[in-house]
Known about the structure:
- By secondary structure, the chain is an alpha+beta fold.
- It has one domain.
- Helix content is 20%, strand content 22%.
- The strands form two sheets. The protein has a four-stranded mixed beta sheet with strand order 1-3-2-6, with no helix packed on it. The chain has a two-stranded antiparallel sheet with strand order 4-5.
- The two termini are 23 Å apart.
Amino acid sequence: MVLVAPLWVTQNWFTPILEMLIQDPLILKVKKQTLNVPGINKGHPLVNKLHLMVFHISGIPSKAELYWKNLSKFSWLLGENPLRSNISVTSRNVFSSVAKVKVIFFKRLLNQ
């Protein structure tokens, strides 16, 4: 299944979506013509700040497990503070995220 959703790492649905991934997610930069307010021909008010994600997900646990098995573990250098939450990491670099002690890299689509 392909799911398109906003890149909102602080939302409670974001981590469960990551846990169902079967491929690296893609980032779409939203343009004025990409996203409109329903019912009127006007661009979305967050068009300059919003990124959309394309998630290839599956509800079949074995498919997600295969994807997660091939991801690299997230690790800190010796002497650094351990990771306490995903939010601090993603706010510094919105093109990757950490879940289940694994790093997920988001791929940006070119020529958007």
